[in-house]
Amino acid sequence: MVKKSDVPQHIIDTAMTLARERGWRDMSLADVADAAKLPLSQVHAIYPSKQAILRGFTRMIDARVIADEDADAGAEPAKDRLFDILMRRLDALTPYKEALAAIAHDQGRDPFAAACGAGRLACSMATMLEAARLSTSGLRGVIRVKALTGVYLATLRVWFREDAPDLPKTMASLDRYLTRIDGCARRFERKRPEPAAV
Fold it and tell me: From residue 12, how far is each of 3, 6, 8, 105, 134 by CA, in Å?
C-alpha cells in the first residue's frame, strides 16, 4: 500500500518505468493507473494527463537540483555556476535516462507534445538560471533562457549517447557550449551603448 504522501512520486516512477518498457506515445493514463495499482480517478485527480505527469516530473527534478545548492557558489563565475547546476540536473535525471530517451523520441513526432515540452523546458531553464543567481527578467532574461535551453538540449543529445559513468564527453560538450555563450554574452556587454545623458 502506497502512503498518500508518496502517491505523486509513485505515479511518476510508474509512468517512467512504462515509458522505458513500452514507449511513451501509445501509453495511456489508464495504463499508468493499472501499473501503479491505483484507481484511475486517483491518478487523474493528481495528474489529469500524461503531460501533467511530465510537468510533475520536471518540477521534481528542478526541486532536487536547487535543494542541492552550494551557498558559496555565488562567488564563482556565471559559467562555472551554470556548469555545476546542469551537471547536478543530469545526475538527478540519470535514473530515468532510458525513459527520457523514449519520451524524447516519441514527443519529437507529436507537435502538440513537443510544444508542451518546450514550455516546460523554458520554465525549467529559467529556474536553473535563477539558481545560478542570473536574472530572467526583461529581454536579457528571455535571451538567457533561450541560450541556456539551446545549451541544455545540445548537451542532452551527447548525454543520451554516452555510456561512461563519469560522463567525460557530456562534460566536455557542456563546457564548450557554455564557453561559447559566455563569450557571446561578454561581447554583447562590451557593445552595449552608454545611456544618453539626461
Answer: 14, 10, 6, 19, 30
For residues 78 and 132, what is the distance between their CA atoms, to the nearest angstrom? 7
For residue 77 the three cell numbers come to 563565475
Q: Which three cell numbers stand for residue 53?
A: 505527469
pLDDT digits (tens), the chain, 198 positions? 788 889 999 999 999 999 999 999 989 999 999 999 999 999 999 999 999 999 999 999 999 999 987 766 667 899 999 999 999 999 999 999 999 999 999 887 778 878 888 899 999 999 999 999 999 999 999 999 999 999 999 999 999 999 999 999 999 999 999 999 877 666 555 555 544 443
Collapsing DSSP to helix, strand or coil, 136 comes out as: coil
Q: Which of 2, 102, 4 is nearest to 46 (CA)?
A: 4
Distance of CA 124 to the CA centre of its chain: 6
Distance, CA of 159 to CA of 170 (rounded, Å): 5
**pTM of this prediction?**
0.86
- Rounded (to 5) percent helix, strand, coil in the chain: 80, 0, 20
Domain positions in the chain: 57-190
CATH top-level class for 57-190? mainly alpha
